Amino acid sequence: VLLHIVSKCHEEGLDHYLRSFIKYVFRAEKPSVTQAKMTHEILVLSMATILKQSADFLAINKLLKYSWFFFEALAKSMAMYLLEENKIKLPRGQRFPDSYQHALHSLLLAIIPHVTIRYNEIPEESRNVNFSLANFLKRCLTFMDRGFVFNLINDYISGFSPKDPKLLVEYKFEFLQTICNHEHYIPLNLPMTFSKPKLQRVQDVNLEYSLTDEYCRHHFLVGMLLREASVALQDNYDIRYTAISVLKNLLIKHAFDNRYQHKNQQAKIAQLYLPLFGLLLENLQRVASREALYACAAASSPTSRDEFMCSFASPSNRSSLIADKDPACGAALPNGHAIKREDSKGSLNSEGAISSPDQSENVTYLGSSTRSSVSHCSRLDQFEIRTLLMCYLYIVKMISEDTLLSYWNKFSPQELINVLVLLEVCLFHFRYVGKRNIARVHDAWLSKHVGTDRKSQTMPALRSRAGGMQVRLQHLGSLETSFTLNHNAGTSEADIVHQALLEGNIATEVCLTVLDTISFFTQSFKTQLLSNDGHNPLMRKVFDIHLAFLKNGQSEAALKHVFASLRAFISKFPSAFFKGRVNMCAALCYEILKCCTSKVSSTRNEASALLYLLMRNNFEFTKRRTFLRTHLQIIIAVSQLIADVALSGGTRFQDSLLIINNFANSDRPMKATAFPSEVKDLTKRIRTVLMATAQMKEHEKDPEMLIDLQYSLAKSYASTPELRKTWLDSMAKIHVKNGDFSEAAMCYVHVAALVAEFLHRKKLFPSGCTAFRKITPNIDEEGAMKEDGGMMDVHYSEEVLVELLEQCVDGLWKAERYETISEVSKLIIPIYEKRREFEKLTQLYRTLHGAYAKILEVMHTRKRLLGTFFRVAFYGQTFFEEEDGKEYIYKEPKLTGLSEISFRLLKLYGEKFGSETVKIIQDSNKVNVKDLDPKYAHIQVTYVKPYFEDKEISERKTEFERNHNINRFVFETPYTLSGKKHGSVEEQCKKRTILTTLNSFPYVKKRIPVNYEHQVNLKPIDVATDEIKDKTAELQKLCSAGDVDMIQLQLKLQGCVSVQVNAGPLAYARAFLSDSQSSKYPTKKVNELKEMFRKFIQACGIALELNERLIKEDQVEYHEGLKSNFRDMVKELSDIIHEQARTACQEPAEIYHEDTMHSPWMHDSLHVFCAISGTSGDGSYCSLRPTAEI
């Protein structure tokens, strides 16, 4: 009856009367008989009975749907009972009889299947009962024995499984969130440590760090929430979103709870959530996604950046080998379900992300359940990452320093680095991106969310409570990139300004929190940081974070503190900057100089002061002798900034130089030393380097000119290896950006040779740059290193060389020049062997194996194209200035056509001089400058081929050898004596031009000047010999290929053997070898041509035989046609020459009457040659067969 009344009231929309009734009217009657059951006991039993009946589904559904009424009645009845029976004073365990606790437990077990199994059939009912049960249990925590209620909660949560669909996971988190909203949530989670003796209290602290079962027993609710969140993080977006939001809302609540505003109270609360650190470290690869890492990690030098990357993101086997050995991390679930890990090999394959240490005892990795496919859980989006990091930062900020330190002390060195990576990632994700970007994101967010929310609120599912919760949560997270309460989702200017202000404040807050933490870390781990003079991975990471402050946008207020921190850092660890390797000093100079061009004057002043301090500390460090290292690194940094075209704001930079000079002049203790004059000298040198900036800026879009400029700078620093290396590195960057990998590889090879040469001269390495000569003859340039002042502070070592050689291997692989990899490896292997680095040897030999396999593959497929070459000449004094009249050979990628390069140059110079004024000369003839109109810029482009003498051809056997280390090129221009370009066979001449370049390709540049030109004029008979020679060579090449290209072979054969009146080989024979003609030409030339024909006939014969073996039945007729053409050609050839015509013309016939082309073929063709060449039948050629047969 009661059920019917309640459901009727709801249907008529009168449920508010029910609420008033429970609140004001309902009183549990006291039973007259003492033994009789109380109202709440009867209610519980009858509810359980209805739910267990399987017959009346209608009643069950109504009870579930309106369960709030009955649970409210239960709670009120229990409260009244405690008050009226005066049991409120009793210990909790004695307040309610065991029978009631048992009945409650039965009711809970009866509800579970209706939620976890029938959720699809009755979505509204199951959601309602889930919510009202949570509220009821939350009340029970106030009335009953808490241990018992915790058991109920645990049993209920255990009813859910990791493979549940999205809806059930939502129910689970809604349930948890409701329970966690208990007003005494904090005391419920904190066991009373102060009641225990001190020793046990110290041991207890150890439980606080990770999600062990012990931890979950001591901090039940937070433990359960974190475990569920940990599972949810491996799931798809909606589920992760729910979990992360619940966590964030709880922390927001703690932060603003005015009962716990004291620092120590907040520290204790933060300590409760310490296992969240472990959770983040487990998911480090996903929080620090590759792009984010790369931005954070474009650290001090290319090497350190790569090290940073490979410890997280390397796709190579190296990291996957290590990842397999890592302990998987996580925790078993409270209900004893251990979840198998279906690892989402996310964006990174990590050797860095190792579990937090305490989790290795009970490890089963919480992975994605089968429902969420791997792709779901691989990437966290910006919103999720920022929310998680926000929680992390709250804990780091609030927790006591002692706890934090004891937590850090449990970590291994690699795990400590991961802890620091989290801090670095915070700086990246909360950097201030500027008002314009914020406005753009704001608009995108609104269109994405507000539009869909308005629509979706008409959907039945979202009318229910949790749908509204979702929308509110989204608004709580306001923007995808913002974490500020911004309910009015407007896009007015004021909103954007407000949003930008909030973003700015949060960036500052994050910056200062990270700064505090890193300062405390530096203080605590000073001895570890100082090991090996400050050159260790931990120091590098701490330093990277200090640099990250400067790299990611910070507010002016925050930067003041950052600079103060950097000043302290330099003073604390001078040896890291001024002794041993220069990486840290170099990276710091680069970033400070960038700040010296800032638009904000206070930042410029701070940066100038810091740079001055760096010089002064260096000066003091060398016992007041010199600050050569900082001097050199500043020059290098300026050069790099110019190379990266990042040095805008020249005047601001000049101001900063002035400030530094003024510091030096007014620094009293330094007056008597050489310091002020050295500073002056440095600023003068910087100004000289700045002169190059203007030129760089001018040629920003002209890659060839830019590279030439940078190369000329590199050459001018022969005496300063560090600077030369800077410019070569910069050139490599430009090449990689333009996709010119061969040139980039050569830059790496030159840098490695430079370092090898340096070490060789210091007797630290067995060979200098000569060891690289097999890779490129251009390497001799590096031998020109001068030994003077610039060599004093160079700290190259074998380690640096190995890093550079590894970079060479990588570069040569990308350039597809696999053959040279072995040469570089020969230099690395002895070093690895000496150091017993067997893992690296394995890796290197694996690379070598791969390289040789690649060589075989490309030789077989012939799909490797190592470049096309063009001669480019510039004419026009007014436009090209010193380039006027110069000729270059340009190396273009793969198969670049003449039209392509012409178009590129036309566009490039058209943009410089105006498209109307640039003209391309397609003709390959010598240009007469006087005939050109000076109003136009003329560019002559000609296709050229590598040129080799016959001897060289025999030495350079492979395609690679004919495309590597080449410096001679050839092109041919046809002409006739009558002045026309083309004429008949008898009058066709050819001019062959051979160009020699200054260096060999590939080189550190894409274009090399021509320094020598040689021309050969070919008379008509020479042209004929040349043509026949080319045809023969083409046929021989096709026949000797491992994988014969039949189509090409047939096309070539057809061109060779078809007898046409005035074209093809026969035309040459008629023109130069017939009786009437041959006497006009030198006998030697005629014999040469005959010899060529002999080889040509032989090549045709072999090609025909090959074709016969390859063809299928449908081509037999076609082949017969080719054969008869060949016979006719041989017959005509012997007719032209007359000698032994009979033999010659019978012979081919005889050949083909025989069983087609078996062994006699070769002898027969020899007769043909005899006939053509005019040697006697019984001479050397013919003696191979019995004369009788002839």
Automatic annotation (TrEMBL):
Positions with biased composition (Polar residues): 346-361
GO BP terms: positive regulation of filopodium assembly; small GTPase-mediated signal transduction
InterPro entries given in the database record: ARM-type_fold, DOCK, DOCK_C_lobe_A, DOCK_C_lobe_C, DOCKER_dom, DOCKER_Lobe_A, DOCKER_Lobe_B, DOCKER_Lobe_C
Keywords, sorted A to Z: Guanine-nucleotide releasing factor
GO function terms (MF aspect): guanyl-nucleotide exchange factor activity
Residue ranges occupied by any DOCKER domain in the UniProt entry: 715-1142
Region span, Disordered: 340-361
Family to which the UniProt record says this protein belongs: Belongs to the DOCK family.
Descriptive protein name: Dedicator of cytokinesis protein 11
Organism this protein belongs to: Gavia stellata
